[in-house]
Amino acid sequence: MPDVAAYAIDSATGSFSPTTITRREPGPTEVYFEIKFAGICHSDIHTARGEWGPAIYPLVPGHELAGVITQVGSAVTRFAVGDRVGVGCFVDSCGECEYCRAGDEQFCTGEAGTVWTYNSIGRDGVPTAGGYSEGITVEQDYVCRFPDSIPLDQAAPLLCAGITLYDPLKRYGTGPGMKVAIVGMGGLGHMGVQIAAAMGAEVSVISRTLSKQEDGLALGATHYYATNDPETFPSLQGTFDLIVSTVSETQDFTQLIGALRTGGTLVNVGLPELPVQLAIDSLGARKAIAGSMIGGIAETQEMLDFCAEHGLAARVERIPASKINEAYDRVVASDVRYRFVIDGSTFRS
Ligand SMILES: [Zn+2]
Ligand SMILES: [Zn+2]
């Protein structure tokens, strides 16, 4: 396998620069695919900047990969050269623990646990490197197939942003007659609005301002509320069956709980600091606060098929790899509609 061009960061305070990494020759059940687009997820930024603890540097992030298979191992049965495929947040797991058997490979409790697409140690003992690169070798069971109708640039973000919203929306019964609020209108939120609306719910967006209202309504929301309006939360008391919060800044969760109906559920998929007051506010009316983290491979494939069936995809801004540093600053400033995807043809400079 030839070395591939990639972009890496060498410290928490560093910036991205071109490099070369070696991908392994595909084993019998592995495929190699050329990466056409790689999404930039906020998690990439947190990891690269050491905000979730020390990362393994040099780090090649990227866990929203979309590309085309160019090589398959001798025993690969599920894929062929030319297939349009993608990889999300993880590339391996034990396959035998109760969570893997249940299709929740992201919660693997095997000895090595879930092997993340980057910043993890692979089966071969080598640190994993993600999608900011020209290609990747992956075990076929961790690869998803993109339906033909979804362009690859708009498909890549589905593998993290899409599944992160699809899983809790489905788990908590999103459908006709349900009032669902999506908090935050970013990369995650804009997928949540589309998926919840396609599932038949009445969807509201709760965002800081009304700046993305037009997009929110176009994507399927019927109401759009700004948290900078002091009337918003008082007017929403006891309104929603389900609220999915996608924001990572610390916020007042007690207001979101207040906006739930009795018996309602607040699912947090962002990573803010949670105050203790949360427990007190929630137990009074049997309200549930839940966590959720991506989804397994089978469910990810189900989500991709659902998106194709309903004509859903991410809205993206394409950038060349040379603009990753600038893109990071813009993501942190919420200045992207709604996901940056790196053009895979620009890793080689
Ligand atoms: Zn992500
Ligand atoms: Zn496992």
Plain-language structure description:
With 349 residues, the chain is of the alpha/beta class. It is 24% helix and 26% strand. The chain has two domains: 3-160 and 295-346, Alpha-Beta Complex (Quinone Oxidoreductase, Chain A, domain 1); 161-291, Rossmann fold (3-Layer(aba) Sandwich). α4 crosses α5 (187-198). The chain contains eleven helices and 17 strands. The protein is globular. The longest helix is centred in the C-terminal third of the chain and has 14 residues, at 297-310. The protein has helices at residues 42-48, 98-101, 152-155, 161-171, 187-198, 213-218, 232-235, 253-258, 277-283, 297-310, 324-332, and strands at residues 3-9, 16-22, 30-40, 65-72, 84-87, 90-92, 115-116, 135-139, 144-145, 179-183, 202-207, 223-226, 240-245, 260-268, 288-291, 316-319, 339-343. It binds zinc ion (2 copies).
